[in-house]
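Researcher: Here's a chain I'd like modeled. Treat it as a single chain, no partners, no ligands.
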Amino acid sequence: MHPSSEALVLGVETSCDETSVAVVRGGREVLSNVVSSQIPLHAEFGGVVPEIASRQHVRAIGEVTRVALSEAGVQMADIEMLAATRGPGLAGALLVGLNFARGMGLGLGVPVAGVNHLEGHLHSVWLSRDSPPVPPPVLPMLALVVSGGHTELVVMRDHGKYELLGRTLDDAAGEAFDKVARILGLDYPGGPAIQRAATGADEPVRLPRAWLPGTFDFSFSGLKTAVLHLALEMATGSTVTQLRGTALPKIDVAGRLSPEQVANIAAGFQESVVDVLVRKTVGAAEAVDAASVAVVGGVAANRALRERMQRDVTRALFMSAPEFSTDNAAMIASAGFYVPAPAEGDVQPGLGLSG
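Model: Modeled as a single isolated chain. Structure tokens:
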């Protein structure tokens, strides 16, 4: 199942709470990339509710597909291949997109590729709205995959050939952003909310960094705990030791913090995460003598991270455009084009990278 060099691939992404369909030519030129966000539906819960996500995918996917084809200026009969996410992600959500693509593929008589969502993120730096597209990264490429569910350093030696160098031992960076935002009483999702709050900081706090010497692994759980303790102390005027034995869960931490305190904690947290991500990435790129470096995933849209990467990375640097950083179908179409594995078997919610 090898598509032609200019094949039109219809990508489908429903791994979590974004219903997305895209049309991509030749694995690189994005003709359309439509995303229907569920953020308002999940915001009141402070995170994604799987059952709500699955039902909303069913409601939205037909219309999202119609809009994607219309924006691309193509008909269903023009599609030469489909690609849909088979994992990792929420089982129910994955089933909606993969089965939708399989049904469409049967109707059209075209092949359907089952795509690893992480592989999609890696291929997001191949995407371009330009025609012809800008030159792609040179391999081997060291990639930082950083999102709500993943924080990994991966060497991409070829399409479909990867080596995992390090990963988070607990919270992913994006997950830590969400949890810290909740502590500070900020909006969901936490990444954009913390970035906005941090712009008002006049004296960012200094928070710890988990370096895990001798590895390229990450850990953000301790940083999250440090933020909680600092916020408690600022909110109550007492140390955590002094507060032990009190009804800590009943303390309205966010309600007692001033806007200046929230901004300074947000900025300090963001600086800590960015510092670790950038230093680990630079060190890994040197260790494997990577020809290029990529930063992909939802957290790749963070302005502080992008600026620090541009400052510190000396090799060819590729950062997925904000449009292609968060979950989207264009990256799935690209990965399916370059690694056209047949969409056989069931979805794989815990799928990892291999190759």
